[in-house]
């Protein structure tokens, strides 16, 4: 005898009775007596049948239960029609994670004090379904407090598409399986837990919509300190540390005692006269591989590493002595000392340092051998080293924006992403950098702080003329998708010519008035349908499509369809939009299929990115690719493309309208910045900007009314060109 997995349509009623089954017996009550009746199974034609008596068989337990709710069970001792199922006991009552009288705000206040992903609690939800109470689980994930509703239907607790017999079973399942991305439930939060590990509330952890702002909010100043002397704690709320220890997140208090974090000690007190404040090194982070995490550097070539135990506090010390401090019998002051509570941890660090030192010394020996080999070849082949050095493609030189005109074609400068972003996003320096790129080579590489191998946006660099923009190819994200779309041109050979507009004197990607040779277009995209859209995890998806134009700042626009409910096989949208693209030679168009989950977060399904100049009009099939730009079998979109010139019959009129729209956008952004930044205390700036904005809008309205120029804004749906399809 066995139970089979039920379809979703059976779960509302049939699972209520399945909870009453003991192995293969159904249980019900009559005249204060419990009676049991075995449910049998047999196979007919390869299908399982369920029955109580041989003459009456059913395809499912659901059909069996429904039949005996209308027809009586008969035996020599009784006749009985099945009624209501026995209610399930509330096994979640008394659990440390369940709070019966807790509001959403109170749950957020509790979770803000526990800065650990996986902290959670379950409470009653304010939302009711047909008068029944629902539940909600509040948890921390990615440093944010999030909420997810747990619906109660037919005695089942449903979260997303998963159903559970009880809240206890739900918690046990998500303690072993991810609930949100890679987060599993770990720490049940209640008042007792907060008393032992609770910290100051983290006000930045609440996940809310971006339209809510907290103005003029003052946050306590947090600094870091270095210990000047060793200190042993006298009380439980104090911390112990050794000389040169770094104490972070320090809060200054009166009375000569401060609070901070050191190692596993959180929010502990220590004497202020035992430490010195560290200067903020954020301004130097661009020059360091690890940013603010890097406190210095040590040359590992020729170092001496020693380990020994510290008497009295059961800790172990690792000392690194520099090369210049070593002598025959004397060892100078160590360059670095690190302590740990575990001997194994110290030995692991020693092994890692020795391996790096060995690799460094081996590399130095290999470089020396290569140098000797080159000298030998120079003597044998009688080729001067100076002559060989002339045969190079590029010569690295420091970048000087003032010396652009004197640069040579074979000179190349390298930029970390943070430095080049300050140049290409500056309206005045961007034009000068375009002129520099016309004479010399430039290379951009990711900053060292990207320890997760994430990528930066390469478009501003390309638009400013950077010839080589390096990305982390092992990470499949939007910048890599844009890179794939950019180099689909020219037969995917890896080389793309700069557009002609970038060679115009005075061209500036941040100023549309300098794009004199560009031919603006109006691009109409109709997202008709799709096929075979499958979410990465199991389950039915409700897909939507996002269409995005990426290029110069004036061309960025996005459109999103509605979601097709529970249809990833052949969804139909038949929705459209129009984009006005001022410089199509620098623009890319990106299609992204997504599935929105119960948390409101989009889940990636597939994408495709193309240069706008490569698009062709008509009905087009768009094959989708995964995050690593590998083709997804059978997955694709059906779209209709229409391309027409934005100039129409009057180029001068269109240019004027375009400049007016750009001016309106800039004024709107200035008003927003003045409001959010609190720079307009007396309202004068806002009045002035409002007056200018109204004048620009009046001028635009007169032009469009006079000449009948009707241009749709990006993201506006097209209602008069629907494609005649039916579901």
UniProtKB/TrEMBL annotation:
GO CC, any one term: ruffle membrane
Enzyme class, first EC level, given as a word: hydrolase
Reactions this protein catalyses: a 1,2-diacyl-sn-glycero-3-phospho-(1D-myo-inositol-4,5-bisphosphate) + H2O = 1D-myo-inositol 1,4,5-trisphosphate + a 1,2-diacyl-sn-glycerol + H(+)
Domain C2: 504-626
Positions of the PI-PLC Y-box domain: 387-502
Record-linked SUPFAM superfamilies: C2 domain (Calcium/lipid-binding domain, CaLB), PLC-like phosphodiesterases, SH2 domain, SH3-domain
Residue ranges, compositional bias (Basic and acidic residues): 718-727
Protein's GO biological process: lipid catabolic process; phosphatidylinositol metabolic process; phosphatidylinositol-mediated signaling; release of sequestered calcium ion into cytosol
Identification of the protein by name: Phosphoinositide phospholipase C
Organism: Geodia barretti (Barrett's horny sponge)
């Amino acid at each position: 005898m066995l139970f089979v997995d039920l379809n979703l349509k059976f779960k509302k009623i049939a699972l209520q009775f399945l909870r009453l089954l003991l192995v293969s017996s159904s249980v019900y009550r009559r005249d204060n007596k419990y009676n049991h009746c075995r449910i049998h199974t047999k196979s007919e034609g390869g299908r399982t049948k369920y029955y109580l008596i041989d003459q009456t068989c059913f395809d499912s337990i659901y059909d069996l239960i429904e039949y005996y709710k209308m027809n009586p069970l008969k035996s020599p001792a009784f006749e009985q029609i099945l009624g209501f199922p026995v209610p399930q006991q509330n096994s979640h009552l008394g659990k440390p994670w369940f709070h019966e009288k807790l509001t959403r705000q109170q749950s957020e206040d509790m979770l803000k004090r526990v800065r650990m992903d996986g902290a959670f609690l379950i409470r009653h939800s304010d939302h009711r379904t047909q008068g029944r109470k629902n539940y909600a689980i509040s948890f921390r994930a990615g440093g944010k407090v999030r909420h997810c509703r747990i619906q109660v239907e037919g005695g089942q607790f449903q979260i997303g598409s998963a159903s559970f017999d009880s809240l206890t079973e739900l918690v046990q399942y998500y303690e072993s399986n991810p609930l949100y991305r890679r987060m599993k439930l770990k720490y049940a939060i209640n008042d007792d837990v907060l008393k032992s590990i609770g910290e100051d509330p983290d006000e930045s952890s609440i996940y809310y919509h971006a339209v809510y702002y907290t103005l003029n909010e003052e946050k306590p100043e947090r600094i870091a300190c270095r210990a000047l002397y060793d200190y042993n704690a006298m009380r439980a709320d104090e911390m112990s540390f050794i000389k040169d220890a770094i104490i972070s997140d320090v809060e200054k208090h009166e009375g000569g005692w401060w609070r901070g974090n050191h190692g596993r000690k959180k929010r502990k007190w220590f004497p202020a006269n035992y430490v010195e404040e560290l200067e903020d090194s954020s301004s130097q982070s661009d020059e360091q591989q690890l940013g603010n995490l890097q406190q210095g550097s040590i040359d590992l070539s020729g170092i001496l590493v020693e380990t020994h135990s510290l008497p009295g506090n059961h800790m172990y010390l690792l000392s690194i002595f520099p090369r210049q401090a070593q002598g025959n019998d004397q060892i100078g002051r160590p360059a670095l000392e690190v302590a740990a509570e575990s001997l194994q941890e110290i030995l692991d660090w020693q092994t890692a340092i020795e391996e790096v030192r060995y690799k460094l010394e081996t590399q130095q020996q290999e470089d020396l051998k290569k140098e000797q080999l080159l000298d030998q070849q120079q003597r044998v082949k009688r080729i001067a080293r100076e002559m060989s050095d002339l045969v190079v493609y590029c010569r690295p030189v420091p970048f000087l924006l003032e010396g652009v005109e004197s640069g040579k074609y074979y000179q190349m400068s390298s930029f970390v992403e943070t430095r080049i972003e300050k140049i290409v996003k500056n309206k005045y320096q961007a034009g000068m950098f375009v002129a520099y790129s016309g004479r010399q080579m430039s290379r951009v590489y990711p900053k060292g702080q990207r320890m997760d191998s994430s990528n930066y946006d390469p478009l501003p660099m390309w638009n400013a003329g950077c010839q080589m923009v390096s990305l982390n190819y092992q990470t499949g994200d939007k910048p890599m998708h844009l890179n794939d779309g950019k180099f689909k041109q020219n037969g995917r050979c890896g080389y793309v010519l700069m557009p002609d507009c970038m060679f115009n004197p005075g061209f500036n990607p941040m100023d549309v008035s300098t794009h004199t040779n560009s031919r603006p277009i109006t691009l109409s995209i109709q997202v008709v349908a799709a096929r075979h859209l499958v979410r990465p995890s199991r389950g039915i998806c409700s897909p939507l499509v996002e269409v995005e134009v990426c290029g110069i700042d004036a061309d960025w626009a996005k459109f999103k369809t509605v979601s097709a409910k529970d249809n990833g096989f052949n969804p139909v949208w038949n929705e459209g939009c129009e984009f006005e693209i001022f410089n199509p030679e620098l623009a890319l168009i990106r299609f992204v299929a997504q599935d929105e989950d119960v948390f409101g977060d989009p889940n990636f399904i597939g994408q495709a990115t193309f240069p706008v100049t490569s698009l062709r009009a008509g009905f087009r099939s768009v094959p989708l690719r995964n995050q690593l730009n590998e083709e997804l079998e059978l997955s694709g979109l059906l779209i209709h493309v229409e391309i027409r010139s934005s100039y129409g019959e009057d180029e001068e009129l269109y240019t004027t309208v375009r400049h007016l729209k750009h001016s309106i956008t800039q004024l709107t952004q200035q008003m927003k910045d003045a409001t959010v930044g609190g720079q307009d205390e007396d309202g004068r700036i806002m009045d002035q900007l409002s007056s200018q904005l109204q004048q620009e809008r009046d001028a635009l309205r007169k032009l469009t009314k006079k000449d009948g120029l009707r241009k749709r804004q990006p993201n506006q749906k097209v209602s008069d060109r629907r494609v005649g399809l039916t579901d």
